[in-house]
Design brief:
alpha+beta; TruA/RsuA/RluB/E/F_N; single chain
C-alpha cells in the first residue's frame, strides 16, 4: 500500500488559480474500513474522504496522511494534507464535509499551512493507544469496538518491566511485516501500560512505526502480562534478523492513533528532508 499522493513539491503561492496546502485533523471508527489506503473494491478511509471531498469541492482531491492505519484500526488524532484551490473556503470545510461524510469518519478542523508542511514526512512522532480489559465479563458493551477482551488476568508491573526493555532505537524487524525497501529501524520513545480498574491502556509513541509494529509489540507483551513469557523475552527478539513467528499480532480493534506531533513551521522543510533520507519508506 502506498500513499495516494506524496506531494514532494511545494504548492504554488495562494492567490489566482494557485493552490494552498491544507491540513486536515480527523477521526474515524475503523470497524467498517479496510484500512486507510485505497484498495480496489474495498471501503477505505482514504477512498471515502477523497471521493467525498472531490464531490463537495468539484475538484479532484488527493490526500497524504501521517500514518496509514490497517483494517479495523481507529484514529482520534489522524492528520492529512491536501493541495486545494485557493478559492476554497477552508474554515467552512469541516461543516460542509459533515453533511456529506458517513458517520464513522469526521474532519474536525481544516487550516491553511505552509507549503513545506507534509503530513507524512514532516511528522516528529506518532502516538497510539491500545485498550485491553481483563474483566471476567469481557469488554463493556459500549466499548467493545475499541477494547480487546482478554480472557486471563494481566500483571501491569510485568507488562511495564518488559516494555521498558524495548525503549530506544532498535531494528524492530521481529515485530514488523517487512516491506520491500523499507527500513525497520525505529526509535520507540514511550511504551507504558496504565491500569484503571479492569481496563489497561498501552501508550505507545515513536518517530514512526513499521507495518503491524504496535500490534505485534502488544501481542508479545500480553504473553508476558499473563505469565506465559518472562519479562526479557520481547526484548530478546530484537536480535533476530527477521519477523518472529512466536509473536502474535494483537487484534486491530483495540488500537487507535491518537496524536501526531510536528515541528514549528520554520523547521518543517528540514524535518521532511531528514525523514525522506532516513526512512525512504512508509511510516
Amino acid at each position: 500500500m502506498t500513499d495516494s499522493h506524496f506531494a514532494d513539491e511545494p504548492v504554488t503561492p495562494a492567490g489566482g488559480d494557485g493552490l494552498v496546502r491544507v491540513r486536515l485533523d480527523l477521526a474515524y471508527d475503523g470497524t467498517d474500513f479496510s484500512g486507510w489506503a485505497r484498495q480496489p473494491g474495498r471501503r477505505t478511509v482514504c477512498g471515502v474522504l477523497e471521493d467525498t471531498m472531490s464531490t463537495v469541492l468539484r475538484s479532484d482531491v488527493a490526500l497524504t496522511v501521517a500514518g496509514r492505519t490497517d483494517a479495523g484500526v481507529h484514529a482520534s488524532g489522524q492528520v492529512a494534507h491536501a493541495d486545494l484551490p485557493a478559492s476554497v473556503d477552508v474554515d467552512g470545510l469541516p461543516r460542509r464535509l459533515a453533511r456529506a461524510l458517513p458517520p464513522d469518519v469526521r474532519v474536525f478542523s481544516a487550516r491553511v499551512v505552509p507549503p513545506e508542511f507534509d503530513a507524512r514526512f514532516a511528522a516528529l512522532r506518532r502516538h497510539y493507544e491500545y485498550r485491553v480489559t481483563d474483566a471476567p465479563h469481557g469488554a463493556h458493551p459500549l466499548r467493545r469496538l475499541d477494547t480487546l477482551a482478554w480472557p486471563r488476568p494481566l500483571d501491569v508491573a510485568a507488562l511495564n518491566d518488559a516494555s521498558a526493555l524495548l525503549l530506544g532505537e532498535h531494528d524492530f524487524c521481529a515485530f514488523c511485516r517487512r516491506r520491500e525497501g523499507a527500513t525497520t529501524i525505529r526509535e520507540l520513545q514511550r511504551l507504558e501500560w496504565v491500569r484503571e480498574g479492569e481496563l489497561l491502556t498501552a501508550f505507545v509513541s515513536a518517530d514512526a512505526f513499521c507495518h503491524s509494529m504496535v500490534r505485534s509489540l502488544v501481542g508479545a507483551l500480553l504473553a508476558v502480562g499473563e505469565g506465559r513469557k518472562p519479562a526479557g523475552w520481547p526484548a530478546s527478539l530484537l536480535s533476530l534478523s527477521g519477523r518472529s513467528s512466536e509473536v502474535a499480532v494483537a487484534p486491530a480493534h483495540g488500537l487507535s492513533l491518537v496524536r501526531v506531533d510536528y515541528p514549528a513551521d520554520g523547521e518543517l522543510a528540514a524535518r521532511a528532508a531528514v525523514t525522506r533520507n532516513v526512512r525512504g519508506a512508509p511510516a
